[in-house]
From TrEMBL:
The keyword DNA damage does not apply. Gene3D superfamilies: RNA methyltransferase domain (HRMD) like, Vaccinia Virus protein VP39. This is Class I SAM-dependent rRNA methyltransferase. Residues 65-265 form the S-adenosylmethionine-dependent methyltransferase domain. GO terms for molecular function: methyltransferase activity. Keywords: Methyltransferase, S-adenosyl-L-methionine, Transferase. It comes from Humisphaera borealis. The keyword Methyltransferase applies. One of its GO terms (biological process) is methylation.
Length: 308
Protein backbone atom coordinates (compact mmCIF):
# COMPACT_ATOMS: atom_id res chain seq x y z
CA UNK A 1 0.00 0.00 0.00
CA UNK A 2 1.32 3.43 -0.93
CA UNK A 3 1.83 5.85 1.96
CA UNK A 4 -0.62 8.75 2.20
CA UNK A 5 0.67 12.01 0.69
CA UNK A 6 2.32 14.30 3.21
CA UNK A 7 0.27 17.14 4.68
CA UNK A 8 3.42 19.08 5.48
CA UNK A 9 2.95 22.64 4.16
CA UNK A 10 6.23 22.59 2.24
CA UNK A 11 5.33 19.27 0.62
CA UNK A 12 1.91 20.62 -0.41
CA UNK A 13 3.50 23.77 -1.83
CA UNK A 14 6.06 21.70 -3.75
CA UNK A 15 3.37 19.51 -5.30
CA UNK A 16 1.29 22.54 -6.28
CA UNK A 17 4.34 24.18 -7.83
CA UNK A 18 5.14 21.05 -9.84
CA UNK A 19 1.53 20.83 -11.00
CA UNK A 20 1.60 24.47 -12.11
CA UNK A 21 4.90 23.93 -13.94
CA UNK A 22 3.42 21.01 -15.88
CA UNK A 23 0.68 23.36 -17.11
CA UNK A 24 2.91 26.30 -17.99
CA UNK A 25 2.25 25.79 -21.71
CA UNK A 26 -1.51 26.09 -21.13
CA UNK A 27 -1.54 29.12 -18.85
CA UNK A 28 -1.27 32.31 -20.88
CA UNK A 29 -2.95 35.63 -21.57
CA UNK A 30 -5.29 33.68 -23.87
CA UNK A 31 -6.20 30.98 -21.32
CA UNK A 32 -6.76 31.57 -17.62
CA UNK A 33 -9.08 28.63 -16.90
CA UNK A 34 -7.62 25.14 -16.64
CA UNK A 35 -7.17 22.16 -14.33
CA UNK A 36 -4.29 22.82 -11.96
CA UNK A 37 -4.48 19.54 -10.01
CA UNK A 38 -5.92 16.31 -11.38
CA UNK A 39 -5.93 13.94 -8.45
CA UNK A 40 -3.31 11.28 -7.77
CA UNK A 41 -1.42 12.07 -10.99
CA UNK A 42 -0.43 15.37 -9.36
CA UNK A 43 0.10 13.95 -5.88
CA UNK A 44 -3.37 14.73 -4.48
CA UNK A 45 -5.55 11.58 -4.52
CA UNK A 46 -9.30 12.24 -4.84
CA UNK A 47 -8.74 16.00 -5.11
CA UNK A 48 -9.07 18.30 -8.11
CA UNK A 49 -8.36 22.01 -8.49
CA UNK A 50 -9.80 24.01 -11.37
CA UNK A 51 -8.67 27.59 -11.89
CA UNK A 52 -11.00 30.25 -13.30
CA UNK A 53 -9.29 33.62 -13.81
CA UNK A 54 -7.25 33.31 -10.62
CA UNK A 55 -10.08 31.83 -8.55
CA UNK A 56 -9.60 28.26 -7.37
CA UNK A 57 -12.34 25.66 -7.20
CA UNK A 58 -11.21 22.68 -5.11
CA UNK A 59 -13.23 19.52 -5.61
CA UNK A 60 -12.99 16.41 -3.46
CA UNK A 61 -14.29 12.92 -3.93
CA UNK A 62 -15.03 10.76 -0.86
CA UNK A 63 -13.32 13.15 1.52
CA UNK A 64 -13.77 16.48 3.28
CA UNK A 65 -11.86 19.61 2.41
CA UNK A 66 -8.23 19.34 3.57
CA UNK A 67 -7.31 21.80 6.32
CA UNK A 68 -4.47 23.27 4.26
CA UNK A 69 -6.89 24.53 1.60
CA UNK A 70 -8.00 27.46 3.76
CA UNK A 71 -4.41 28.66 4.10
CA UNK A 72 -3.52 29.00 0.43
CA UNK A 73 -2.07 32.43 -0.21
CA UNK A 74 -1.85 32.55 -4.00
CA UNK A 75 -5.42 32.48 -5.40
CA UNK A 76 -7.78 35.45 -5.33
CA UNK A 77 -10.51 33.15 -4.03
CA UNK A 78 -10.80 29.56 -2.86
CA UNK A 79 -14.06 27.66 -3.18
CA UNK A 80 -14.82 24.01 -2.44
CA UNK A 81 -17.27 21.55 -3.95
CA UNK A 82 -17.85 17.94 -2.99
CA UNK A 83 -18.20 15.71 -6.05
CA UNK A 84 -21.47 13.99 -5.24
CA UNK A 85 -23.93 13.11 -8.01
CA UNK A 86 -26.70 12.39 -5.50
CA UNK A 87 -26.43 15.70 -3.63
CA UNK A 88 -25.35 18.41 -6.06
CA UNK A 89 -24.59 21.44 -3.92
CA UNK A 90 -22.96 24.67 -5.15
CA UNK A 91 -19.37 25.47 -4.14
CA UNK A 92 -18.71 26.93 -0.69
CA UNK A 93 -16.47 29.91 -0.04
CA UNK A 94 -13.31 28.96 1.86
CA UNK A 95 -10.86 31.85 1.60
CA UNK A 96 -10.06 35.06 -0.25
CA UNK A 97 -12.60 37.20 -2.05
CA UNK A 98 -16.25 36.20 -2.00
CA UNK A 99 -17.34 35.71 -5.61
CA UNK A 100 -20.89 37.01 -5.39
CA UNK A 101 -21.33 37.88 -9.07
CA UNK A 102 -20.59 36.11 -12.36
CA UNK A 103 -17.19 36.86 -13.88
CA UNK A 104 -15.36 36.16 -17.13
CA UNK A 105 -12.71 33.51 -17.71
CA UNK A 106 -10.73 33.20 -20.93
CA UNK A 107 -10.02 30.08 -22.98
CA UNK A 108 -8.01 30.30 -26.19
CA UNK A 109 -8.94 33.97 -26.42
CA UNK A 110 -12.68 33.42 -25.95
CA UNK A 111 -14.49 34.65 -22.86
CA UNK A 112 -17.02 32.62 -20.89
CA UNK A 113 -19.28 33.66 -18.03
CA UNK A 114 -18.47 31.74 -14.83
CA UNK A 115 -20.79 31.70 -11.84
CA UNK A 116 -19.84 30.07 -8.53
CA UNK A 117 -23.29 30.83 -7.12
CA UNK A 118 -25.32 29.27 -9.94
CA UNK A 119 -25.33 25.69 -8.67
CA UNK A 120 -23.31 22.49 -9.01
CA UNK A 121 -21.79 23.42 -12.42
CA UNK A 122 -19.99 26.72 -12.97
CA UNK A 123 -20.64 27.36 -16.67
CA UNK A 124 -17.95 25.60 -18.68
CA UNK A 125 -16.47 22.10 -18.73
CA UNK A 126 -12.71 22.51 -18.97
CA UNK A 127 -12.12 18.99 -20.28
CA UNK A 128 -13.64 20.03 -23.63
CA UNK A 129 -11.09 22.79 -24.34
CA UNK A 130 -9.32 20.99 -27.19
CA UNK A 131 -12.61 20.04 -28.81
CA UNK A 132 -13.90 23.60 -28.65
CA UNK A 133 -10.74 24.83 -30.34
CA UNK A 134 -11.09 22.24 -33.10
CA UNK A 135 -14.75 23.19 -33.60
CA UNK A 136 -13.69 26.82 -33.89
CA UNK A 137 -11.06 25.98 -36.50
CA UNK A 138 -13.44 23.97 -38.69
CA UNK A 139 -16.58 26.13 -38.51
CA UNK A 140 -16.05 28.92 -41.05
CA UNK A 141 -19.11 29.09 -43.27
CA UNK A 142 -20.56 25.98 -41.61
CA UNK A 143 -23.85 25.23 -39.87
CA UNK A 144 -23.31 23.62 -36.48
CA UNK A 145 -25.89 21.78 -34.37
CA UNK A 146 -24.98 21.68 -30.68
CA UNK A 147 -27.08 19.21 -28.69
CA UNK A 148 -27.21 19.25 -24.87
CA UNK A 149 -25.61 22.65 -25.32
CA UNK A 150 -25.72 23.79 -21.64
CA UNK A 151 -24.25 27.34 -21.75
CA UNK A 152 -23.42 27.06 -25.47
CA UNK A 153 -19.62 27.01 -25.16
CA UNK A 154 -19.28 24.89 -28.31
CA UNK A 155 -21.67 27.24 -30.10
CA UNK A 156 -19.60 30.26 -29.10
CA UNK A 157 -16.48 28.55 -30.44
CA UNK A 158 -18.29 27.83 -33.71
CA UNK A 159 -19.50 31.42 -33.95
CA UNK A 160 -16.02 32.78 -33.27
CA UNK A 161 -14.77 30.58 -36.09
CA UNK A 162 -17.25 32.05 -38.55
CA UNK A 163 -20.00 29.46 -38.31
CA UNK A 164 -23.70 29.62 -37.51
CA UNK A 165 -24.94 27.51 -34.61
CA UNK A 166 -28.16 25.95 -33.38
CA UNK A 167 -28.09 25.21 -29.63
CA UNK A 168 -30.57 22.75 -28.13
CA UNK A 169 -30.99 22.26 -24.38
CA UNK A 170 -33.77 21.43 -21.94
CA UNK A 171 -32.88 24.41 -19.75
CA UNK A 172 -33.98 27.89 -20.81
CA UNK A 173 -31.75 29.54 -18.14
CA UNK A 174 -28.73 27.70 -19.56
CA UNK A 175 -29.50 28.98 -23.05
CA UNK A 176 -29.89 32.52 -21.70
CA UNK A 177 -26.49 32.07 -20.07
CA UNK A 178 -25.24 30.95 -23.46
CA UNK A 179 -26.46 34.17 -25.06
CA UNK A 180 -24.40 36.12 -22.51
CA UNK A 181 -21.38 34.07 -23.58
CA UNK A 182 -21.98 35.16 -27.17
CA UNK A 183 -22.25 38.79 -26.10
CA UNK A 184 -19.04 38.53 -24.05
CA UNK A 185 -17.25 37.76 -27.33
CA UNK A 186 -18.96 40.48 -29.39
CA UNK A 187 -21.04 37.86 -31.20
CA UNK A 188 -24.70 38.65 -31.83
CA UNK A 189 -26.97 35.92 -30.40
CA UNK A 190 -29.63 36.92 -32.95
CA UNK A 191 -27.41 35.42 -35.66
CA UNK A 192 -27.79 31.98 -34.05
CA UNK A 193 -30.65 29.74 -32.92
CA UNK A 194 -31.47 28.71 -29.35
CA UNK A 195 -34.04 25.96 -28.84
CA UNK A 196 -35.48 24.82 -25.52
CA UNK A 197 -36.24 21.15 -25.98
CA UNK A 198 -35.18 17.53 -25.84
CA UNK A 199 -32.28 16.58 -28.12
CA UNK A 200 -33.80 13.40 -29.55
CA UNK A 201 -37.09 15.12 -30.29
CA UNK A 202 -35.38 17.93 -32.20
CA UNK A 203 -33.15 15.53 -34.11
CA UNK A 204 -36.28 13.81 -35.39
CA UNK A 205 -37.88 17.15 -36.25
CA UNK A 206 -34.83 18.26 -38.22
CA UNK A 207 -34.74 14.90 -40.02
CA UNK A 208 -38.42 15.18 -40.95
CA UNK A 209 -37.86 18.70 -42.31
CA UNK A 210 -34.79 17.58 -44.26
CA UNK A 211 -32.56 20.07 -42.50
CA UNK A 212 -28.81 19.51 -42.84
CA UNK A 213 -25.75 20.51 -40.83
CA UNK A 214 -22.01 20.43 -41.47
CA UNK A 215 -21.18 19.52 -37.87
CA UNK A 216 -23.31 17.94 -35.16
CA UNK A 217 -22.09 17.86 -31.56
CA UNK A 218 -23.53 15.32 -29.12
CA UNK A 219 -22.20 15.89 -25.60
CA UNK A 220 -24.89 14.62 -23.22
CA UNK A 221 -24.86 14.22 -19.46
CA UNK A 222 -24.49 10.64 -18.32
CA UNK A 223 -28.06 10.75 -17.03
CA UNK A 224 -30.87 13.26 -17.45
CA UNK A 225 -34.64 13.50 -17.18
CA UNK A 226 -36.83 15.73 -19.33
CA UNK A 227 -39.90 17.64 -18.16
CA UNK A 228 -42.15 14.70 -19.02
CA UNK A 229 -40.07 12.37 -16.87
CA UNK A 230 -38.38 10.61 -19.77
CA UNK A 231 -34.94 9.38 -18.72
CA UNK A 232 -31.84 9.58 -20.92
CA UNK A 233 -28.98 7.14 -20.29
CA UNK A 234 -25.80 7.22 -22.37
CA UNK A 235 -25.29 3.46 -22.58
CA UNK A 236 -28.87 2.90 -23.73
CA UNK A 237 -29.73 5.98 -25.78
CA UNK A 238 -26.56 7.45 -27.31
CA UNK A 239 -26.64 5.21 -30.38
CA UNK A 240 -30.17 6.32 -31.22
CA UNK A 241 -29.07 9.95 -31.18
CA UNK A 242 -25.92 9.41 -33.23
CA UNK A 243 -27.72 7.34 -35.87
CA UNK A 244 -30.26 10.11 -36.51
CA UNK A 245 -27.53 12.77 -36.38
CA UNK A 246 -25.66 10.95 -39.15
CA UNK A 247 -28.63 11.44 -41.46
CA UNK A 248 -28.51 15.20 -40.84
CA UNK A 249 -24.93 15.64 -42.01
CA UNK A 250 -24.42 17.57 -45.22
CA UNK A 251 -22.03 15.93 -47.69
CA UNK A 252 -18.91 14.87 -45.82
CA UNK A 253 -20.00 16.48 -42.58
CA UNK A 254 -18.64 15.60 -39.16
CA UNK A 255 -20.15 14.27 -35.95
CA UNK A 256 -18.50 14.94 -32.58
CA UNK A 257 -19.54 12.39 -29.96
CA UNK A 258 -18.37 12.64 -26.36
CA UNK A 259 -19.30 11.10 -23.03
CA UNK A 260 -17.90 11.22 -19.50
CA UNK A 261 -19.54 7.92 -18.55
CA UNK A 262 -16.68 6.33 -16.60
CA UNK A 263 -18.02 2.78 -16.77
CA UNK A 264 -18.12 2.91 -20.57
CA UNK A 265 -14.85 1.95 -22.26
CA UNK A 266 -13.60 3.60 -25.44
CA UNK A 267 -14.26 0.44 -27.54
CA UNK A 268 -17.75 0.14 -26.06
CA UNK A 269 -18.46 3.79 -26.90
CA UNK A 270 -17.30 3.20 -30.47
CA UNK A 271 -19.62 0.21 -30.69
CA UNK A 272 -22.57 2.27 -29.47
CA UNK A 273 -22.03 4.66 -32.37
CA UNK A 274 -21.22 2.19 -35.14
CA UNK A 275 -23.73 -0.51 -34.23
CA UNK A 276 -26.55 2.03 -34.50
CA UNK A 277 -25.48 3.29 -37.94
CA UNK A 278 -27.37 2.12 -41.04
CA UNK A 279 -24.05 1.21 -42.68
CA UNK A 280 -21.23 0.98 -40.11
CA UNK A 281 -18.62 0.41 -42.82
CA UNK A 282 -19.33 3.87 -44.26
CA UNK A 283 -18.05 5.69 -41.18
CA UNK A 284 -14.59 6.41 -39.80
CA UNK A 285 -14.12 6.99 -36.07
CA UNK A 286 -11.14 8.93 -34.74
CA UNK A 287 -10.55 9.11 -31.01
CA UNK A 288 -8.93 12.17 -29.47
CA UNK A 289 -7.15 12.58 -26.12
CA UNK A 290 -8.21 14.82 -23.27
CA UNK A 291 -6.41 18.16 -22.78
CA UNK A 292 -2.88 17.95 -21.35
CA UNK A 293 -3.86 19.41 -17.96
CA UNK A 294 -6.10 16.39 -17.34
CA UNK A 295 -3.33 14.04 -16.27
CA UNK A 296 -5.40 11.51 -14.34
CA UNK A 297 -8.07 9.05 -15.43
CA UNK A 298 -8.99 9.51 -19.12
CA UNK A 299 -12.70 9.38 -18.34
CA UNK A 300 -13.85 11.56 -21.25
CA UNK A 301 -14.35 9.58 -24.46
CA UNK A 302 -13.98 11.80 -27.53
CA UNK A 303 -14.89 10.43 -30.93
CA UNK A 304 -14.88 12.37 -34.22
CA UNK A 305 -17.04 10.60 -36.79
CA UNK A 306 -16.87 11.21 -40.54
CA UNK A 307 -17.66 9.51 -43.84
CA UNK A 308 -14.99 7.24 -45.29
Amino acid sequence: MKPAPSTNPSSIADRLTRAATRRSAIRSADTDCYRLVDGAADGFPNLLIDVFAGRWLIQTRDQDLPAWAAELGEPRSVYWKRLDQTNKEPPKHIAGEVVAEPFLATENGLKYVIDFAAGYSQGIFLDQRSNRQRVREMSRGKEVLNLFSYTCAFSVAAGAGGGRSVSVDLSRPSLEWGKRNFEANDLNPADHEFIVGEAGDWLRRFAKKGRKFDLVIIDPPTFSRDKKGKVFRVERDFGTLSSVAMTLLRGRGTLLCTTNQRSLSRPAFSSLILDAADDPSAWKLTHAPMPADFTGEPYLKICWVSKR
